[in-house]
Amino acid sequence: MNFTSEIEFITEKIRSAYKTYAECGASSVMQKSHFDLVTDIDINIEKYLSAEIVKKYPDDKIHGEETSSTQALVGRTWIIDPIDGTCNMARNICLHGVQCALFVDGEPALGVIYLPHTNEIFYASVGGGAFLNGEKIHVNAGVTINNVIASMGDYSHVNGEVAKRQHDSMGFLYPKIAKIRMFGAACFDFAYVAMGKTDCTVVITKNLWDIAPGVIICKEAGAIIRNLEGEEYSYGDEGVVASANEEIADLVDESYKRSVTITDKNGEKHTFKCCLFDFDGVVVDTEKYHLIAWNKGGEKFGVTIGDEEYLPLKSTGRDYIVNYIAEKSEMTLSDEDRTYVGDTKENTYVEITRDLSEKDIVSGIEKLLMLANDKGVPCGVGSSSIFAPKIAKDLDLDKYFKVICDGSLPLPKKPAPDLFLLTARLCGFEASDCVVFEDSMAGVNAALNAGMKVVAIGGIKHPDAMLCIKDFTELEYK
Question: Do residues 152 and 170 touch, judged by C-beta distance below 8 A?
Answer without folding.
Answer: yes
